[in-house]
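User: Hello! I'm new to structural biology and keep hearing that structure can be predicted from sequence alone. Could you demonstrate with Ras-related protein RHN1? Please show me the input and the output so I can see what each looks like.

Assistant: Of course. The first part below is the input, the amino acid sequence of Ras-related protein RHN1. The second part is the output, the predicted structure written as tokens.
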Amino acid sequence: MARPPTAEGQLRAEEQTAYSHLPDFVSTAKQQIRSREAERGPPGQRPKVLDLMARMGSGNIQAKLVLLGHMGTGKTSIVLRFVKGQYFDSQESTIGAAFFSQVLSLNEATVKFDIWDTAGQERYHSLAPMYYRGAAAAIVVYDISSMDSFIRAKKWVQELQRQGNPYLIMALVANKVDLEAKRKVGAEEGLQYAQENGLFFMETSAKTAENINELFYEIAKRLAKARPSRSSGMRLSSETQDRGRRLFCCSG
């Protein structure tokens, strides 16, 4: 099995661009998806990869995506649920960052996500710019049962707004909605903050899989319809459709 790229290698390869065309990707993507299926459990537990490649044409995107948030908010669980269809009640804290990849196919494009799951501990904060630099999208996660994690999420949003890609697609994600009885942060509060800061907002549960696939599907659609990056010359468009009862889209 190939070793995931180091953060430094990833940054050197990407430099200033958040997207890149994949001219040979269409012919190999189906094979990649099939080769991963055995690792993801029963079909009912696997992410829905829409098999629409025959209609896709040449719209292929490789996008760097970073997850940020306080420790214990479920960032790794969200990624594992999306990539492998798995969930573990006990999940060790990420050290530094972990790398994953996954493919989503839409009518208008195939998106290959290069996902960096960052550690939430404060001692790793100084490493974060290595992972969000050059990212096309960011998921900022908080735990609905922790007001402290919501406050920390706001700080991540502010940092991204100051230092990140000006065209960065950002999602504010309220995770652990399965802990409704312990909720400390209301959905309206998260939604309002997202609206005020140009993010889209979604409530999820990695444990039950609620809105996990929808989260990444929404990001993929926004990447496909985004303004082309200057370095890639990409020209794609799509119509966005809300999915999931806890999805609130707050920015175009």
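User: So the tokens describe the shape?

Assistant: Right, they're a compact way of writing down the 3D structure. Reading them back into a model, for example: The chain has seven helices and eight strands.
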